[in-house]
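Check the record.
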Amino acid sequence: MQGKWQEVSVGDLCPFAYGKGLPEEHRNATGQVPVYGSNGVVGFHNSPLTDGPTVVVGRKGTAGAVHYSPVPCWPIDTTFYVTGKESSLIRYLYYLLKSLGLEHMNADSAVPGLNRDAAHSRRVLIPETVTEQRAIAHILGTLDDKIELNRRMSETLEGMARALFKSWFVDFDPVRAKMEGRWQRGQTLPGLPVDTYDLWPDRLVPSEMGEIPEGWEVKSFADTVEIIGGGTPKTSVPEYWNGDIPWFSVVDAPATSDVWVLDTEKKITHAGIANSSTRILPVGTTIISARGTVGRLALVGVPMAMNQSCYGLLGKLGKRGFFNYFATRQLVSVLQQRTHGSVFDTITRDTLAGVQVSVPPVGVVEVFELGVGPFLERLRNAIAESRTLAALRDALLPKLISGQIRVKDAERFLKDRGL
């Protein structure tokens, strides 16, 4: 039977402490303690301000945003924080505060801000027993932990694929290994399968790009891809929008470690496609943002369209688009340095044509794509699973926090789905 619930104020339940300023020069990349601003982690430090798991609430800037740190951290002076309780109860408070819509309690007109007294005065219903609070935190936390595990796995898989690309196509390690006698026919070395030995020359030769493997070519990057433009259906025509075709803009760009884009914020209809300059991009196309925030990348995981602030780059080498994605990523910093435009930084077709790349034989590209394919497919599956888990969490959170559904019902619901 569901336990009793009681009404309390946020201020009585979990009073907010003020974060403390930490100048950027006191933050560092090697510290173990996360530094939180109102929009999340903004750096690291060597010592914490809090003494355990912490809920951080945006006070200025991204006001009302709620973050959970499972470890002691340093919330800066644009935040409030709650700490000092056991981890399961801190996590319960995290989900409770996330359910309150604090981001809509903007107290300042010029700079978004959250008034502590106003937040403290909010009345909430909570289970009387900490046992039930812990159970709610456990159910929601289990879903978030699986999402976090997938995120870490994605970082590892993407890192492995990127490292192999760099070894083969930037550092030319297979060629150097043959030149130096470290790789002999019939041998397998790390990253160098035995059956790829004959694909690699044993010499580097001069080129306008510097030394490259013998037999490779130097081409304009634009000659190695089909460049596809995007477009926006008229927003004044309802029949063009809210369809079933994902429509990519820079806000949909995935985290670097995620690589794939599987869904978008906005969707369009087939009529929108037919009556605009956008077109359907096939799976394996690399999208690069080309205007404003330039250089954000995504590998198309489902057929989709995109807006005119992006280019689709369909690689001419390889069948799956993996080589082209990592080749484009390798060029991003160069492309960003060569942007044009007096108002917005812009990558143009001339920018893409003005960058030279070394082009390997097709056979080498195919072996690379075959090698990294399992990594990227596992990564895509992890992203899809995390989307499902996040949807379940978002559906359960308000109902569990409000007592609309019972803990046992939620546990049964997840068990039926293999979770």
About this structure: The chain has a mean pLDDT of 93. The chain is about 35% helix and 20% strand. The two ends are 23 Å apart (CA to CA).
